[in-house]
Amino acid sequence: MSVARLFPSVTSAVVLCALLAGCGTTPDSSAEMDPYAGGASFPWTYTAPAGSLGPQRLTAALNTLSFETLLGASNGWGPIEPDRSNGEQARGDGRTLTLAGVPYARGFGTHAGSEMRFSLQGYNGARCTRLTSDIGVDDEVGHRGSVVFQVFLDGVLAYDSGTMTGASATRRIDLDLRGQGELRLVVGDAGDGIDYDHADWANPQVRCENDSAADLRYAFEFPEPLNARYGQQVTATLRVSDEPGHTSGPVSFQLSVFHWSSPGAPPAQLAEPNRVYAATTLPAEFPVRLNLTAPYPDGFTPPTGPVELTLAARLEDRGFFRRAYLNWNVLP
């Protein structure tokens, strides 16, 4: 007895598969689709809104750029991806940044043509001195892609990598930043189109140092008193300015409750004790949330009337502080 007669359905399936050149496939589906066909691109741009630069704090430390605020940016294939490869057109669709088999936790996944701009203005008198970064075409595109990395300082070309491809070895940028005010990181397409031009700035860091000659004259004050009862959460406005006739530059600091004038009054507590307050231009005002501790539970009646709170503003990476005095009129 033939196998075909025992399993007629199997024989029919084999014949059908042969006629269709493979079960569930067509000749076209096995070929890789070209996402760049027809000159496709997915441009993306970003401009920082006015007044949004507070989170950027280049202090006297080694500052990783993927934590800093972009002044402006553009990209040729969807959004620039912080701490991920460029991926495709959607935000967050990249992978771990990888150059020549080495993964990086921090950096930017970009795509030609791209550009990122950063301020190099340090906080609390810090002066930025050096930029370092590894660069290359991300492993996610194999040996494809061809790009040129460029660094501009105050609009002047300071570094040009020449053409790099997916087969190129990783290169390292190490540039002097002293006296510079703006950093611009650019990726070009090497003159042959943007196909597979996935370019990584891996672990980009800016080193800044305290300027021992910096004459910092910040003034901290609470211009309006509090009028509140114990047990409330209130918001006081802290104003930071330069002393008259002086310019200190951007400021960043943390607050703590240092002292209160009445020994019978429970202390106020900061609702956000770990918050960093920062401003690029002065004068600047900050909302400071305080918990006014409720009276002691043992029946002790704390005083009402005026209480003066002293808050300490500790300058980030400077190790010294300024005082600010807040008048609290304790309501009965």
From TrEMBL:
One Pfam assignment: NPCBM
InterPro entries, per the entry: Galactose-bd-like_sf, Glyco_hyd_98_carb-bd, NPCBM_sf
Residue stretches making up the Glycosyl hydrolase family 98 putative carbohydrate-binding module domain: 59-208
PROSITE patterns for the chain: PROKAR_LIPOPROTEIN
Signal peptide (residue range): 1-23
Keywords from the UniProt entry: Signal
Protein name in the entry: Carbohydrate-binding protein
Originating organism: Deinococcus radiopugnans ATCC 19172
